[in-house]
Amino acid sequence: MKKVKKCSRCKKAKRMTRHQRICSQCKQDGFFSGSYFRWLWDMAKLSDKQAMPSCTDELIKVFEVRKFAIKARGYYRENQSLGTKYNYHIGHRYPASKGGKLIAENLVVMPALVNLTLRDKHGDGLECYKIERTEGHWTLDEFKDYVASIDIERLQAYIGGSEASNVNDFETNGLPMDEVLQIEAERLGEQPKGTELLVSGYHQKLSKFSQIANGLEQLEILMGFDDMHQQLLNYRKQQDGIMGFDIEPRNEFDVDDTLIEMESAKAMERLKELKVQGELGGNEANYLADMLTPLEIEQTQMYFEVQENQRVGLVA
Question: What is the pTM of this model?
Answer without folding.
Answer: 0.75
